[in-house]
Amino acid sequence: MKLKQIVIIILVFLGVSSCLEPFNVTIGDENTTFLVVDGLITNENTSHSVKLTRSLSNINEDIIPEVGAELIIEDDFGKETTLRETKRGVYQTNPDDFIGIPGRTYRLIIKTKKGERYHSSPCLMPPPSDINDVYYIPANNTIGDSSNKLNGVGIYVDGQINTDEIQYLRWAYEEDWKFYIPFGHHEVLLPDNTWEPISPKKYCWKSSVSNEILLYSFNNQTEQQVIGKELYFIAANESDRLIDRYSTLIKQYSITKEEYDFWRKIQQSDPGVSGIFGDQPFSIKGNITNTNNPEEKALGYFQVAGVATKRIYIDYGKIQNLKIAVNNEFSNCNYTPFILDSLNAGGTTENPEYEDIYSILKKFVLSGDYSYEFAFPIIHPAPLNQTVIGLALSSAKCTDCTLSGEINPPEFWEEQ
């Protein structure tokens, strides 16, 4: 993995620190590794995760999951919760055993497979704030250095705090959207030229998790609410997010001053050349320490936050009402008709090149010699004549939505 990629990964995952201090990482020999901790617990009644990896000083190598470790979350009352490794390097709590309680202080304790011990700084969980509204309005934006304006919608949030214990907020969001392709067939042709029903692959879902740093400070402000905070922009003609039904889950985290300051310093750095290994005045240490060797450099954080959430849906009809043009990347899907009589026009009745409709499928799809996939049967044009006279064939992209999405909707998904 290239240095820039390592920098971006660390910038995405770095979080809280009980003390912002200089952290000068020296790239040593190629066998030197740094433990990287990516963890978050909140007051949500869900499974919380801590991800452990090893970042090699040999920057041409990939990061390695830290497997076989023992992880414990300890609160200020001495209660301990053990995390279970659910996949390589990912450790999770059981929702029945653990839920974060605002006002409590938590610490992460790690014992690696090699016996190394690490711990996080004690971190207070602030109370959750309130999300009053999440909404969208027509907007236009530019991407990068381009001067071209892109039409779409901006996603906004209104929120407030009800206690002086909260002075800082951070937002994250999770996107899910439904899309469709034009030729998701619901039956398949069998060798005996009969048709068997199948589950169509016309509608699928995609998802994405944000990695922007979105912050707000109430420090030195008399108002205890934030109005019209734009979180992000969806370009209507740059993705398939808005072609059917779109959902976003906004997470509003109550964070401490230390975490806010940490994210601000990350935000102010240049992820292209700076970050942990970059040319900053100093690099930013997370809140992870080697218990027996404090001089060892450990990267990452154990984040503790109160959270409020709100989900909204945006349907294509609403986008149409706003007169926003949506670019459907599948609108250029075409098909090629293969008509049995036309294919046999150069042959003889006694010895046709294609004996039946299945022969077309066998040659142009099943053989693998062509880049075609079955789209739909071509029916005789005469009224009341349901005879299949050929096949319409298209590309895989236009006939199988699972090539770019998931066939099953998310558990929370609601239709109109």
Describe this structure in words.
- This protein has 416 residues and is mainly beta.
- It has five helices and 24 strands.
- Strands 1, 2, 3, 4, 5, 6, 7, 8, 9, 19 and 20 form an eleven-stranded mixed sheet that branches.
- The protein is elongated and about 90 Å long.
- The two termini are 44 Å apart.
- The model is unreliable at 1-27 and 272-282 (pLDDT under 50).
Mean pLDDT: 87
Radius of gyration: 28 Å
Instruction: Give the class from helix and strand content and strand pairing.
Output: mainly beta
Count the domains.
Answer: 3
Helix content class: 10-25%
How much β-strand is present in the residues? 35-45%
* Total count of strands: 24
Q: Biggest sheet, in brief?
A: 11 strands, mixed
Distance between the termini: 44 Å
Overall geometric form: elongated
H/E series, N to C?
Answer: HEEEEEEEEEEEEEEEEEEHEEEHEHHEE
- Tally of helical runs: 5
Question: In summary, what is this structure?
Answer:
With 416 residues, the protein is mainly β.
Task: Summarize the topology.
Elements: H1 3-13, E1 33-41, E2 49-56, E3 64-65, E4 70-75, E5 80-87, E6 90-92, E7 105-111, E8 117-120, E9 123-124, E10 130-141, E11 150-160, E12 168-180, E13 187-189, E14 195-197, E15 203-209, E16 214-217, E17 225-235, E18 245-255, H2 257-268, E19 288-290, E20 299-304, E21 306-315, H3 316-321, E22 336-339, H4 340-343, H5 357-366, E23 373-379, E24 388-394
Parallel strand pairs: 1-20
Antiparallel strand pairs: 1-2, 2-3, 2-6, 4-5, 4-7, 5-6, 7-8, 7-9, 8-19, 10-11, 11-17, 12-15, 12-16, 12-18, 13-14, 18-21, 22-24, 23-24
